[in-house]
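Standup notes, structure subgroup. Blocker cleared on the FE2/S2 (inorganic) cluster input:
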Amino acid sequence: MATLSLSINGRSVTAEVEPRTHLADFLRSDQHLTGTHLGCEQGVCGACTVLIDGKPQRACLTFAIDCDGADVRSIEGFENDLLMNELRAAFSKFHALQCGFCTPGMLASARDIVSRLGEVSEKRIRLELSGNICRCTGYVGIVEAIRSVSLGKAPESFAVAAAATRLERLGADVVIRSTETAPTSQLGRSKGEGGSLEERIVINAPPEEVWGALSDLRRVAPCVPGAEITEIDGELIKGRVKMALGPIKPSFRGEARVSLNPAAREGKMTGLGRDKGTGSSAEGEASWRVIEGPANGSVVVVSMNWRLTGMLSQFNRSSIVRDVVRGLATAFAANLEAMLKGDAPPPSEPESLNVLQLIWSMIRQRLFGRS
Ligand code: FES
Ligand code: FES
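Run returned:
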């Protein structure tokens, strides 16, 4: 017997194993994780595919002892993974499974395809899936499901994936939706603390409707918690954003220049704001694109660069900003959907964006899987 220590689905495990035990048997018999299926046991069918250190591998061809120190993720380990949840919903919607025997391995490979390649063609999906065999459903639904989830997505950056692995080793469930990107403007070189990221917001309304709303800045501004437009003069808009950081309540006043390209359903904004109370300044640029999403819905792809100076720049750690942006995006999507349906218009008086509440809700979601 040999001693094996590894992380399985974010949990530290130490066990005695026979050197000949393969990982699939170890997961199924020792760890009772029977979602890893065994079909051929000779590396052909892909039913046993799991992620080892983030990469899909055959559990039937991998000795458990070779995973000493590794991070193993089986199908049971994706409960709070947003991308996997999207894939699961799409597999249901597109009838991508019948008996379900191949499905855990298919989903592990599908997650790898979308996170590694982003938006991907049908041809490439078929090529990438050539190591996973389905004996009863056929591949049309599986390929459609993966393609629909990939629409509008960019490949996940190495930095984000590595950070996720580190967090998982600490026992946290991780939802990755933001992609940190390299600064693309002068903002990245000026004084202060800055960053950039890309976020995808799924809206349950057709792209034309979403674009129509986003083009009407006065209409859409109330959907952003804490934002208010005070003046629009051509491409120039003036307004303010109110926040609440515990006892600190900054109110940024500033102006931005907006340009819209209706043919491509793309918009761009550059702006500068200042909060007198804390002496902080924020400058940033954002661009957005509305594309078709799953189930006749839309995906708004937003890219941002920003730079903070003054007291508030201490809150610029990328994880904090990412959580705030993600929380904002969720609130914005809910408000916009409600506004488009006309059943619950956003409040006319902007409320402060409660940053600490947003961060806490994202941490709770990561750790406990609820908001
Ligand atoms: S059971 Fe591992 S590839 Fe078939
Ligand atoms: S759903 Fe039955 S083998 Fe794929």
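Discussed briefly. The CA atoms of residues 91 and 240 lie 43 Å apart.
Next: hand off to the docking folks.
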